């Protein structure tokens, strides 16, 4: 069997089912009309026909549109349940008895269908208990009352004739059902609070109204108050309106679905950021789009940042693997076809956004590892400098000191004294070399005394005069200080080598939450920013801290290097 | 003459103590960190405190801060800072507005025993000692229209000796020239560089250093 055959068969089965239910509905309506006309219940019959028609027709539409939902069948059941109670108008004792026995079943059905909106399933244990109780009461107590002979001679179930007891049982039944209905209204209030669309809230309101008026009707039935027939008609009219409201809701969802056409256009123009278009199409500003990156085995947002995927989401799959998810307001679950349509439209344009998110995630990872490598290097150099200072340098100074003392004591022996002086000179040379090495490893003066002090001697060693202007109210983090220090050192080295400048200006200041380092010279310009000249390494160092390095170097107009380092 | 030594390396601390002891100083306290130093100076009021610039706990600026604080709190205590850094800015930070009775020497200098002992004596007497490497770092700075170009090599030599804190007599002894010759050089140098004459020998060190440091 091909797919198309299966589809056709499915369709014909659905059509057959619809026709059968339609015919059954017509028969029930006809029965009500005939029975009503024969027993002077014409007014009531008209109302019941309205009730049955709206529930059965809406039920069929709902079943057709959402085959997976039990809500449609439930609506149909309500329609037929209402017809069943009309049998009580019959003069045939069997039909009368059946009709009487199921007279109040429809009350439980109303409660059931309203609480089961929109999936057709009762959402939790409490509502299941409530509806179960309603069914038990509506049939159990009704039959009990009938056993006590509540409904006269045509009641085939009557075993004793105890009209007082039967009346009490019936009253208890009606009051209990009224109470259960009002409890149902409380659940509907919770449901309404969670609703996100206005149409849904209106629908839930119409359900609540129906249940309240039904409860009022039942209470009035007990106390036989005046105006019962009017309240009955109003109640049935209201109850009949509920499925109409539901149909309007469906239509609204259909309209939303036509918005999906715009979505496709929107998404195509969205240039990677699909979120606003999705929010418009789903009328849910809280919508977010997550991408699944199998390489990292995690969800990321559009910027490639790791994200937690909440429980309420619609996962978009390709070849069975998740590729993205639309995270939406829980109440959008009421509109599965809208979500389906949006998912289908989104899937077509997903690849660009996903690729971009993946790229951003990789970039963030590379940046992170670069920053870690540089930071680890900085720490290691710092440690080495410290070891040199506390170890070899101190020892050499100590040795040099001992040689110095020895030298003093050897005043008499010129030859020995010369040898010691020579040795001392060697040690001094080693110390000078070691000092240069230590300083090259890590600018310890910077750690101890800050940028102004450390840069003063750097500037002093340049080949051109440097105007140094360090305006810092407080010291930034050490990693930031070190980066700023190297920006200046490297820039001055470049200027010495290439710029043929006569003056250099270095300005370091705090602007907002950034440390801004600017080095300007009046040299020949044309610095090679792409390759080498140390600028690339500097850019790495600055970017690893989340900063930016910019170079302006027009030929013959000097060079300006500016680093902005976040230090907030 | 009573001296306090603050140096966290035991080897160096003992070496310096021995050296100064040999030279006739009375080493009254040997401290391993800034806190001990403060206590010793407060209690003993020595003539001179010799302070390592890099001391525990963080090995950053404890020594320099202690030196500056002692100069402020105990004007009678002269302070000589020993450092591994050739950093003119640190020397000037120590001196603040007066270089009198203060010194900044590289640690290497202690092995030139005679020079070092001379420097301690100079500081103890209210003079100044600046390491020659600090001075030469300052002198070799690039300057626009370098005024030092106008000096003869001999004048330059005299300028550097002045900056290290030597008196006119000290300079005369070093260069083996007469005191009068030195005085003549000094006034020529001040004239050529436009440094206002300060009169007192000790004051001129700071004036020269600040001149050399200016852009």
Describe this structure in words.
The complex is a heterodimer of chains A (568) and B (215). With 568 residues, chain A is an alpha+beta fold. Chain A has 3 domains: 3-254, Rhopdopsin 7-helix transmembrane proteins (Up-down Bundle), CATH 1.20.1070; 271-375, no CATH class; 445-566, Histidine kinase-like ATPase, C-terminal domain (Heat Shock Protein 90), CATH 3.30.565.10. Helix content of chain A is 66%, strand content 10%. Chain A contains 15 helices and 9 strands. Chain A has helices at residues 3-38, 42-65, 71-85, 93-101, 105-115, 125-147, 163-194, 198-223, 228-269, 275-282, 336-409, 414-441, 444-460, 478-499, 535-544, and strands at residues 288-293, 298-300, 313-318, 321-327, 466-471, 504-511, 514-521, 548-552, 560-566. In chain A, strands 5-6-7-9-8 form a 5-stranded mixed beta sheet. Chain A has a 4-stranded antiparallel beta sheet with strand order 2-1-4-3. In chain A, helix 8 packs antiparallel against helix 9. The longest helix of chain A has 74 residues, at 336-409. Chain A starts with a helix and ends with a strand. Chain B has 215 residues and is of the alpha/beta class. Chain B folds into 2 domains: 2-131, Response regulator (Rossmann fold, 3-Layer(aba) Sandwich); 141-213, Orthogonal Bundle (Arc Repressor Mutant, subunit A), CATH 1.10.10. Helix content of chain B is 52%, strand content 14%. Chain B has a 6-stranded parallel beta sheet, sandwiched between helices. The longest helix of chain B has 15 residues, at 179-193. Chain B is globular. The termini of chain B are far apart. Chain A binds chain B through residues 386, 389-390, 393-395, 397-398, 400-405, 407-408, 424, 427-428, 431-432, 435, 438, 444-445, 447-449, 452-454, 456-457, 459-467, 502-503, and chain B through 9, 11-12, 15-16, 18-19, 22, 53-54, 59-61, 64, 84-90, 93, 107-108, 110-114, 116, 137-138, 140-144, 215.
């Amino acid at each position: 069997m091909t797919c198309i055959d299966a589809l056709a068969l499915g369709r014909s089965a659905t059509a057959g089912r619809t026709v059968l239910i339609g015919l059954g509905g017509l028969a029930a309506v006809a029965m009500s009309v005939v029975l009503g006309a024969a027993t002077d219940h014409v007014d009531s019959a008209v109302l019941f026909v309205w009730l049955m028609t709206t529930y059965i027709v809406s039920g069929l539409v709902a079943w057709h549109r959402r085959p997976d939902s039990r809500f449609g069948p439930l609506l149909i059941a309500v329609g037929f349940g209402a017809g069943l109670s009309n049998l009580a108008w019959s003069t045939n004792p069997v039909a009368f008895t059946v009709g009487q026995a199921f007279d109040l079943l429809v009350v439980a059905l109303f409660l059931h269908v309203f609480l089961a909106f929109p999936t057709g399933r009762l959402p939790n244990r409490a509502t299941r208990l409530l509806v179960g109780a309603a069914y038990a009461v509506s049939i159990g107590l009704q039959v009990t009352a009938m056993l006590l002979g509540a409904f006269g001679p045509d009641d085939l179930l009557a075993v004793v004739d105890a009209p007082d007891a039967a009346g009490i049982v019936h009253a208890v039944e009606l009051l209990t059902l009224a109470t259960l209905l009002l409890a149902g209204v409380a659940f509907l209030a919770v449901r309404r609070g969670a609703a996100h669309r206005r149409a849904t809230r209106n629908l839930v309101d119409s359900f609540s109204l129906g249940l309240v008026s039904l409860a009022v009707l039942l209470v009035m039935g007990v106390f036989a108050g005046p105006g019962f027939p009017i309240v009955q008609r109003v109640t049935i009219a209201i109850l009949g309106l509920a499925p109409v409201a539901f149909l309007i809701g469906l239509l609204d969802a259909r309209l939303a679905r036509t918005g999906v056409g715009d979505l496709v256009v929107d998404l195509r123009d969205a240039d990677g950021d699909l979120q606003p278009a999705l929010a418009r199409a789903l009328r849910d500003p809280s919508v977010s789009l997550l991408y699944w990156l199998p390489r990292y085995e995690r969800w990321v947002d559009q910027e490639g940042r790791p994200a937690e995927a909440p429980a309420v989401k619609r996962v978009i799959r390709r070849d069975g693997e998740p590729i993205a998810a639309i995270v939406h307001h829980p109440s959008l679950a009421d509109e599965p076809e809208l979500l389906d349509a949006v998912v289908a439209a989104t899937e077509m344009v997903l690849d660009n956004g996903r690729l971009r998110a993946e790229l951003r995630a990789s970039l963030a990872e590379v940046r992170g590892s670069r920053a870690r490598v540089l930071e680890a290097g900085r720490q290691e150099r710092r440690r080495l400098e410290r070891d040199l200072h506390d170890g070899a340098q101190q020892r050499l100074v100590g040795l040099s000191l001992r040689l110095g003392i020895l030298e003093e004591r050897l005043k008499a022996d010129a030859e020995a004294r010369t040898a010691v002086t020579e040795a001392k000179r060697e040690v001094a040379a080693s110390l000078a070399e070691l000092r240069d090495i230590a300083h090259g490893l890590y600018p310890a003066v910077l750690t101890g005394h800050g940028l102004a002090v450390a840069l003063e001697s750097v500037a002093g060693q340049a080949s051109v005069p440097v105007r140094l202007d360090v305006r810092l109210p407080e010291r930034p983090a050490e990693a930031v200080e070190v980066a700023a220090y190297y920006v200046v050192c490297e820039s001055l080295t470049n200027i010495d080598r290439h710029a043929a400048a006569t003056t250099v200006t270095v300005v370091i200041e705090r602007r907002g939450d950034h440390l801004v380092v600017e080095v300007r010279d009046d040299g020949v310009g044309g610095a090679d920013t792409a390759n080498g000249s140390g600028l690339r390494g500097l850019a790495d160092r600055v970017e690893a801290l989340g900063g930016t390095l910019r170079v302006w170097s027009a030929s013959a107009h000097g060079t300006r290097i500016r680093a902005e380092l976040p230090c907030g | 003459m009573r001296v306090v030594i603050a140096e966290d390396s035991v080897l160096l601390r003992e070496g310096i103590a021995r050296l100064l002891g040999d030279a006739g100083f009375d080493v009254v306290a040997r401290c391993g960190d800034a806190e001990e130093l403060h206590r010793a100076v407060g209690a003993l009021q020595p003539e001179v405190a010799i302070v390592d610039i890099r001391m525990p706990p963080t090995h950053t600026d404890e020594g320099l801060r202690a030196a500056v604080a002692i100069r402020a709190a105990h004007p009678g205590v002269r302070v000589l800072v020993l450092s591994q850094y050739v950093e003119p800015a640190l020397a000037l930070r120590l001196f603040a507005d007066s270089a009198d009775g203060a010194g900044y020497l590289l640690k290497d200098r202690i092995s030139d025993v005679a020079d070092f002992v001379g420097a301690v004596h100079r500081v103890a007497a209210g003079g100044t000692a600046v390491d020659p490497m600090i001075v030469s770092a300052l002198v070799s700075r690039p300057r626009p229209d370098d005024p030092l170009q106008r000096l003869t090599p001999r004048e330059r030599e005299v300028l550097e000796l002045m900056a290290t804190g030597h008196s006119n007599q000290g300079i005369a002894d070093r260069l083996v020239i007469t005191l009068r010759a030195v005085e003549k050089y000094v006034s020529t140098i001040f004239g050529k560089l436009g440094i206002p004459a300060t009169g007192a020998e000790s004051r001129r060190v700071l004036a020269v250093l600040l001149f050399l440091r200016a852009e």
